[in-house]
Amino acid sequence: MKWGLVGASTIASEHMIGAIRAQAGHTVEAVLSSSAERGQAFATRNGIPHAFTDLETLLARPEIGAVYISTTNEKHFSQAMAAFAAGKHVLCEKPLALSVDDAAQMVEAARNAGLVFATNHHLRCAGAHLAIRQIIAEGRLGHVLSVRVFHAVSLPEHLRGWRIDNRDAGGGVIADITVHDADTVRFHLGEDPKTVVAQAVSSGLGEGVEDSVMSVWTMPSGIMVQSHESFTHPYAGSGIEVHGTEGSLFAQGVMTQRPTGTITMTDKDGTVQLNYDRHDLYGYGLKAFNRAVAGHGRPAADGVDGLKSLAVAMAVARSAREGRAVDVDYKGY
């Protein structure tokens, strides 16, 4: 399958182009950029045959079977809807859109067209998180009582830009990181957050958007989740803890784009470090996407997964803004 890149982005060049080309028979055919100069430079640097500034021109190429969307967040909805109308499968960066209603329209458009629609939630593709999920599913922690996610990092300077100063483009730490943590918790626990309470601040980096947020989520089962995301914590580290009646799991350095980090588990027999497969996260996700296109299974995170992680993030943002508990609205999904 030939791919079109909608967005000459850092994540495309650092992670996705290599992951696409690692799949047998898959190539990157074209890239779209709002700047002809930047798009051509990106294409030349990455060995891509064509660069376009017009989405319709890219989508009109019959050899392109799928597109990967990694533009700024406010563009995802219209670009994905155009791709579905053109008969292309879509792998879209998170968040899928700026509203859950728009995400729902994307899901329905893909279903009606019979196309594969996936969200690039890379964390659930990591060997560490697959191992954590398996440990929970096997009941090795007993009845799960609580989860703590700590994902407060220092946003690299080259990734700042619109993320720290443009709310209209979907900037802010909630849209950038909380949405990832929502998907990760859903992946591990197999249920969707019901109610959230949150506070958000600008702690030195955000210019008109929040750069730090803490929230507590209540799950339908009664499990409590505490989540902390930030752009301004250079030394905090990241990870996830899962605490149950029979044991506790501590994963550190696993909330990244790389197959890194450690997992330890403590129970009545003591503390042990666990081994896990350290495969490429994005390659794993691409394999699942391609199998789904071939009619075998589903993507690692489909459009509904993206909708639900967005719904949680939107509830966190609303709770922080209004200073009250907010029920998460999944629009019936």
From TrEMBL:
It holds the Pfam family GFO_IDH_MocA_C3. Its EC number is 1.1.1.292. Coiled coil: none annotated. GO terms for molecular function: 1,5-anhydro-D-fructose reductase (1,5-anhydro-D-mannitol-forming) activity; nucleotide binding. InterPro entries: Gfo/Idh/MocA-like_OxRdtase_N, Gfo/Idh/MocA_oxidoreduct, GFO_IDH_MocA-like_dom, NAD(P)-bd_dom_sf. Gene3D superfamilies: Dihydrodipicolinate Reductase, domain 2, NAD(P)-binding Rossmann-like Domain. Residues 2-121 form the Gfo/Idh/MocA-like oxidoreductase N-terminal domain. Residues 130-249 form the GFO/IDH/MocA-like oxidoreductase domain. It comes from the Bacteria. SUPFAM superfamilies: Glyceraldehyde-3-phosphate dehydrogenase-like, C-terminal domain, NAD(P)-binding Rossmann-fold domains. Keywords: Oxidoreductase. Belongs to the Gfo/Idh/MocA family. PANTHER family: CONSERVED EXPRESSED OXIDOREDUCTASE (EUROFUNG), CONSERVED EXPRESSED OXIDOREDUCTASE (EUROFUNG)-RELATED. This is 1,5-anhydro-D-fructose reductase (1,5-anhydro-D-mannitol-forming).
